[in-house]
Amino acid sequence: MQIPVRAAVLGAWLSLVAGSPAFAQADHANRDSWPHTLTRASLSAAGGFLRGPVDDMPLGVQFRGDVDLVDFDRVRVPFEFSFDVAFNDRYNPRHADYGFTFAPTTRVRRADLSVVYHHTSRHLHDQERPGPISWDGFGIRAATAAQSGRWRWEGRAESLVYPEGRRRYVDYRWDAKTENRVIDRVSPRWAYYADGTLREVWCDPSVAGRAGATAARVEAGLVLGYRGGVGEAFIGWDRQIDPLPTDHRVVNFFVFGGRFTVSR
Fold this sequence. Notes:
Elements: H1 2-19, H2 21-31, E1 36-37, E2 41-51, E3 59-71, E4 75-87, E5 93-102, E6 105-108, E7 111-124, E8 133-148, E9 151-161, E10 167-168, E11 172-185, E12 190-203, H3 205-208, E13 212-226, E14 229-241, E15 250-263
Antiparallel strand pairs: 1-3, 2-3, 2-15, 3-4, 4-5, 4-6, 5-7, 6-7, 7-8, 8-9, 8-10, 9-11, 11-12, 12-13, 13-14, 14-15
């Protein structure tokens, strides 16, 4: 149980820091200096029940963070981190994934353009693994949004290359991903949303005998905002690539759960 305990302590500490008056005062002070530091932070925790052909993985928990380390006005440097834990049918940790991303970003008209470096490392709990399971990706990202009345659309596209010397056990060579979200803001506190994600991965056939794999996720839910926090209840379908670290295959899940996000 050491993995989720460390994550819970880290997530609680980060949430307290991001929500503290000291952070808000530092944020105000840093905006008066140049370059600006720690000007934006977002932290979220989500839990989802999974129903699919994998019987010993009924629950997944995710922690996400996104912090602007430095802001030079025209260019900012976000740091994103993630920690995902999958639980077995006895609700003990099965495996955990750690990830982080650096994405220096500039604003060009209505779009944010980024150069991306991403790392993921996968770890098994109380199980033997065939060696390190990890990969590094390098690529580009573009994000934009549009508003019309109470409706808002947010879109993002990303493509990463995974060099052979920077990946272990996995067969990913490069990928392309698009994410879209539509939000219907019913009131200042209530909203409905629908998400769609599509990811195509081109693979090295010499590793697991496949030339590619497709992941997708469709999600819809209800949003409730209150005092700087946002709660979401969602239901969806999730097609995951290699949800089990040592098994190269694509699995479809039905998922339902909740998510809570705080930001400054």
